[in-house]
Here is the input.
Amino acid sequence: MEQRRLGTRNVGAIGFGTMSFGGIFGPTDEATSLACLDAAADAGITHFDTADIYGMGISERIIGRWGRRDIHLATKCGIVTGPPRTVRNDESYIRQCLEASLRRLGREHVDLYYIHRRQPEIPVEDLAGTMGRLVHEGKIGGYGLSEVAPSTLRRAHAEHPVTAVQNEFSLWTRLPQLGLIQACRELGVAFVAFSPLGRGMFGREPLKRAFRAGIDFRDTNPRFTEPNFSANLAAIAPFRALCAARGWSVPGAALAWVLAQGDHIIPIPGTRKAEHLHDWQVPRLDAADIAAIERVLPVGFAHGDRYGDHQMAFVERYC
Here is the structure.
């Protein structure tokens, strides 16, 4: 697999996100998740991403039981599930969360530690100072920020260099192209794209609206509720036809498009099933291919917001 820079190391250009191991998209089990991790490693994936809130520690514990030490591992803290759901970025809380994550992961060190959401009341310079101290103490290899604006990145980076920014980015979520991807490139910061396959919308087959209420969070997500859901299926249908005509898998082409937006971008698709990894083989896209994709999926084509209002709390908006 192609390699890309993440902090001081090279990793596979495609990483692996483990949010689904915690059950946010529906039931899963440890044996299936462990098999999925094995398949990802066999496919050349070396960067794995988790968080303390994914299944309230379930994802981290599964990775800990997996026990691989030859991977680049990231986890996150900062979201307090509540009720009420809020965020904390104070140093005592960050240290408490990190120690708990390390216990679940079975490690004394994690390669990359993200602040999952920023707490507005705490100056980002103070937050960067906290993360810098954890780096100097050897607890973390580097730190990252998630769902932040370019201005926040620049302020944090000036205090202590940021390793990575993780924001949603895909063919139907293009906001990072309005400044954040450019700021990351300028500062030498990796941009880690989560949900690059649109939470299943760019899967092998068109999604069916059979989300389990109270379990699968897409059930109340604006892009997956009617009439938006049907409109989005129709909008993506020409892209599926283009992929079929050119012999591409739909997920592979969607990932290839993300990778083509900058050599500092690392998408982290996720899955609960090992067989889905076969669809992640990326074709080589030339300028004509990219233009053809963007003709059928022009910027801003999606119907509905990527989050509901309650999910947008503490997501930084800058445009």
Observations:
- The longest strand covers residues 72-77.
- The CA atoms of residues 89 and 99 lie 15 Å apart.
- The chain has a mean pLDDT of 94.
- Residues 3-200+259-278 form a domain with the TIM Barrel fold (CATH 3.20.20.100).
